[in-house]
Amino acid sequence: MSTQESRDRFAKVWGYHITAMNPQRGQGADESKPLSVNPLETNVTWEWLIRIVNRCQRHHCSTAYCLQLTKKDAEQARKAGERGGQPASQPVEERFSPQLTCRFQCPWAEQAKARVIRKLGKKWWLFEAQRNDTYMNQYNPLISLCWLANTNCPPCTGVQAVVNYAAE
Ligand SMILES: [Zn+2]
What we know:
Elements: H1 4-15, H2 46-56, E1 67-69, H3 71-82, E2 100-102, E3 115-117, E4 126-128, H4 141-147, H5 159-167
Antiparallel strand pairs: 1-2, 3-4
The protein binds zinc ion.
Zinc ion binds near residues 59, 66, 102 and 104.
């Protein structure tokens, strides 16, 4: 990860294996049962992969899982509570209205090709797959076809990245 050339090579190689491309964007979750099959009697087709990834790999934000206040908004909410809430006389546009955000930073921006980046203030490199679906978790098509459940396969970019992933 020490040079841009080595990072580009890493992204290119792993980009063959890990993707966030939705083969049929706009299909939405498959409400039938693409996972309740006998794998030995099911032909491996693009159509089946499309159904699996749209069923298993799309991220759905919820307050029970990933939506949270940012530290800044939580602090503002705490201070507003200490003051006894916000006075009704305060103009609506000036009232504090915290927004919940996904702790995984979803939705993720579309990307024309895979890359390795380092986010602002972070010490580790991060692989980001080619993406055409802002809610698709990265996946490996073969593993998705075999596992028939949600997977997450970020390639290891270093010890610090592993520690961060484990802490999520
Ligand atoms: Zn989320």
